[in-house]
TrEMBL record:
The gene is Syngr2. This is SNG2 protein. Coiled coil: none annotated. It comes from Chaetops frenatus (Rufous rock-jumper). The chain crosses the membrane at residues 25-48, 69-91, 103-125. Signal peptide: none annotated. Pfam families: MARVEL.
Length: 158
């Protein structure tokens, strides 16, 4: 049935199985999981302290900006995935083709921007990890590597 901007005509019944099988919904779920992994790894194990100094520092070469950047884009990407997921749910109910067009363009623009930001994040975290001293990381190395890895995967999922 011919619809506008990739959806059926407004007013049809919601089919959960058909909805979940759509490629953009699958990509959005995967992107949300990757973002959750990145910011959870950085919040959980991205900061540590030395036994003699209780001051917390970022395990990425003591660069607080690296941890903040990873957490920031991870949280915002996760929230954006939830927002665009809800847009995907209500998209078939939107009858105005102009509104549909703007939503599709916003999704496309945001996805392009976030692909770029994930690429910057991957490069930044990888660079800072390469300069990190091994004696500065007691625990959290696996979480740091996971944040880098899923930042890389997020480039392609967005």
């Amino acid at each position: 049935s011919g619809g506008a901007y990739g959806a059926d005509k407004a007013g049809g019944a919601f089919d959960l199985v058909r909805f979940v099988q759509q490629p953009q919904v699958v990509a959005r779920i995967v992107s949300a999981v990757f973002a959750l992994i990145v910011f959870a790894c950085l919040v959980g194990d991205g900061y540590m302290s030395r036994p003699e100094d209780p001051q917390l520092f970022c395990i990425f070469n003591h660069n607080e900006d690296a941890c903040r950047y990873g957490i920031g884009i991870g949280v915002l990407a996760f929230l954006a995935c939830i927002f665009f997921f809800m847009v995907d749910v209500y998209f078939p109910q939107i009858s105005n083709t102009t509104d549909r067009k703007y939503l599709v363009l916003a999704d496309l623009g945001f996805s392009g921007l976030w692909t770029f930001l994930w690429f910057i994040g991957f490069c930044f975290l990888t660079n800072q990890w390469s300069w990190t001293q091994a004696e500065d990381v007691y625990i959290g190395a696996d979480s740091a590597r996971a944040a880098i890895t899923f930042s890389f995967f997020s480039i392609f999922s967005w």
